[in-house]
Design goal:
Number of helices: 1
Radius of gyration: 18 Å
Shape: elongated
Number of strands: 4
Order of helices and strands: EEHEE
Strand content: over 45%
Strand order of the largest sheet: 1-2-3-4
Structural class: mainly beta
Helix content: under 10%
């Protein structure tokens, strides 16, 4: 299986959404990554590759993420949770 390698660039500066718990929002994007053909899909692989037009060369894809990250302390140990929404286009 070939990995998708992203080089994310900041598209929206970090902003503090909440102080308690601390929540930070930011945006990142990449429009230069290549997408490999499918793997592990059995006989559906060639069908998915054809429908999704895979593999797809670098520069033909884009990923735009709006993320919110929350930090919460549990006693003496810090922990974090993250969530994001993604839009992928070709």
């Amino acid at each position: 299986m070939d990995p998708i390698r992203l080089v994310l660039k900041e598209t929206e500066a970090s902003t503090v959404v909440s102080q308690d718990p601390l929540v930070v929002a930011f945006g990142v994007a990449d429009n230069r990554f290549a997408a490999p053909r499918t793997s592990g899909c059995g006989r559906l692989g060639p069908v998915l590759d054809r429908v999704l037009r895979m593999p797809s060369p670098a520069g033909a894809n884009s990923l735009d993420l709006d993320a919110r990250v929350s930090f919460r302390s549990y006693g003496s140990t810090a922990s974090s949770t993250a969530g994001s929404t993604a839009e992928i286009s070709r």
